[in-house]
């Protein structure tokens, strides 16, 4: 069960990370990255970030690239939320494939 503080921090991280990815993907035409969910650990030290990538064929490659550049993303996040958070959580990025799953189920039902 998520506490109120965890959910507030998760929403803050989701908003700021989505703005960071919006600025970074302007250089890559035809790629859209959205932050679908953020789950934060009870001690606020680790944040699991779920990314939805369009087109989905490039999702694993893009998430691997993001995990390789995690330090710069965490630094950018830290500069944005330095007045709200004392410690910036460690970020772990994962592919959110729920939209692909919904599309697959929808095609099976048709």
Can you tell me about this structure?
The protein is built from 4 helices and 3 strands. The chain is α+β, with helices and mostly antiparallel strands and 110 residues long. The chain has one domain (4-109): GMP Synthetase, Chain A, domain 3, CATH 3.30.300. Strands 1-2-3 form a 3-stranded mixed β-sheet. Helix 1 packs across helix 3 (70-80). The termini are far apart. 14% of the residues are buried. The mean pLDDT is 89.
Q: How large, in whole angstroms, is the Cα Rg?
A: 15 Å
Write out the CATH superfamily name: K homology (KH) domain
**CATH class value:** Alpha Beta
Shape: globular
What's the topology here?
Layout: H1 4-25, E1 32-40, E2 46-54, H2 59-68, H3 70-80, E3 90-95, H4 98-109
Parallel strand pairs: 2-3
Antiparallel strand pairs: 1-2
Helix pairs in contact: 1-3
Any key phrases for this structure?
110 residues; alpha+beta; GMP Synthetase, Chain A, domain 3; 3-stranded mixed sheet; 4 helices; 22% strand; globular
């Amino acid at each position: 069960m998520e506490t109120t503080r965890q959910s507030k921090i998760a929403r803050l991280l989701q908003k700021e990370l989505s703005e960071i990815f919006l600025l970074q993907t302007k250089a890559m035409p035809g790629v859209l990255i959205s932050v679908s969910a953020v789950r934060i650990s009870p001690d606020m030290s680790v944040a699991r970030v779920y990314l939805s990538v369009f087109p989905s064929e490039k999702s694993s490659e893009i998430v691997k690239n993001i995990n390789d550049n995690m330090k710069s993303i965490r630094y950018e996040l830290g500069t944005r939320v330095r007045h709200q958070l004392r410690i910036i959580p460690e970020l772990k990025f994962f592919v959110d494939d729920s939209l692909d799953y919904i599309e697959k189920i929808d095609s099976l039902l048709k």
